[in-house]
Every structure is written in C-alpha cells, then in structure tokens.
C-alpha cells in the first residue's frame, strides 16, 4: 500500500539520534555517504552494514518502519541489480550463459554491492535527515551550514526552506495519491489489470487531480506564510540556539574511526576471492 511508505516522515522521540545537534546530523549523513562509496571489499561493506544496524538501534525507529522506506526504491534496486548482472564482464567460465547473456561471479558481487549501496544510502538519509529531525530543525541546520554562502549574496534561508518543504511534501502527496486511487476504485476504475499501455492510461485520472491538489496546497502554504508576514531570512531570529554536546562529539569521533577503518581495510585487505572485487 502507498500509505506504508514512510519516506520523508518525522517520528518524534528521545533517542540518541533525536537528541543530537541537527547540524551534526547533516554532516554525519554526508560523511556516511562518503563512507559508503569508499567501501570496496566484503569486509568493509560488512563493517558499514554493522554500523548501520547500530544507528537503527540507537535511533529508536522500528526496523519495520525502516523497511517501509525502501518500498519507493524497489524498482531502482531491481534495475540496478539487473544492469550489473548483465553488463559486468568477467574472466573464465561464466556461471550462467544463454544466448548473448553471460553472468560471471564478479557480476554477482558487483550487483550485490551496488544494491547494498542504494539501500544504505536511503536508510542513512532517512535516519539522519527525516526520521529523527523535525522540519524546523532541519531548516535551521542547513541554513547554519550554508551561512558562509550568504556573504556571496546567496539566499541561504530561502534555499533551506525550499529543501525542507520539498521533503515534507513527500508523505503528504503520498497520502493524497492513495485517497485519489481509492476514490477512483470506488467508482469502478481498474488500475491494476491489463498491459503496460492500459495501466499508464489508467493513471491519468490519478495524475490530473494529484497535480491540482499539489498546486492548491502550494498556494495555501504561500498564503499562510504571507498571512504570518513571512519575508525570508532578513532580520529573522531563532527560537532555539543549538550547541554541540558530548553525544555529538562522540558520534563525530565514531564516524572518524569508521572512515579510517574503511580506508585502512581498502588498502591492506588481501585481494582473495570474495574480498577483492573493487567497485
């Protein structure tokens, strides 16, 4: 069901990740993405996978909720896996051969690594940026980190506000889509049978009212901001002043150790079968 998709939602709580400074969480999200792309071997991927499980445990977010966040990317995962299986060459005898399709052992490793990368990217972004960070805190964090650009006349506050609103509109539009689909089904619309062309045509009665609803919500939001005398970031003050605490320093040090371990592992791990397939 579309309502099961949790991407972009915020879950209030008092876990370790909830109590962290939002600026540090944004930096850690970037560092985690860098760490994922630094991984080259099975052991380094196992290390970052264990670290991801640790983050899920200290976030207080149910594992079932984390799995729901992967639903929107299932199609991307399948396409990524298939492309790496079919178009990654290898040496020696293929594990599977049919017509012009040849799948080698290295193809399986590369497909698994790439799929795991995508999954870890989505989980890390969800944990740090949406599940455990409120929209206001996320806006303040992005604005604070990009503040040096304001000296170059870059509208940092407006940019941060647009990013946050875009993230928070995702669950709203998902909910609206499900309402429209249920309304169309109650009127006898068939959205799941037939070939590809028929299914695409069946989506038209959903897309049109969804666009109308999205534009209406945007206009309502703009009107509400104007009624509250919103004029951008000029002269605005902050309700909450964020400070770095022990938890933030501890997590920064922990991430530094993780990235150092991955770099050392990439350099010194022996390139034996199963470990040495580099991306």
What keywords describe this structure?
2 strands; mainly alpha; 65% helix; 279 residues
Extract low-pLDDT stretches. 272-276
Order the strands across the largest sheet as they lie in space. 1-2
Strand residue percentage = under 5%
Radius of gyration of CA atoms, rounded to a whole number: 23 Å
Shape: flat
* H/E element sequence: HHHHHEEHHHHHH
Structural class: mainly alpha
**Strand element count:** 2
State the share of residues found in helices, binned by percent. 55-70%
Largest sheet: 2 strands, antiparallel
What separation lies between the terminal Cα atoms? Answer: 35 Å
Mean pLDDT: 81
Q: How many helical elements?
A: 11
Give an account of the 3D structure.
This protein has 11 helices and 2 strands; from the N terminus they run H-H-H-H-H-E-E-H-H-H-H-H-H. With 279 residues, it is an all-alpha fold. It has a domain at 1-133 and 243-279. The longest helix has 31 residues, at 156-186.
Write a concise synopsis of the structure shown.
This protein has eleven helices and two strands; from the N terminus they run H-H-H-H-H-E-E-H-H-H-H-H-H. The chain has 279 residues and is mainly alpha-helical.
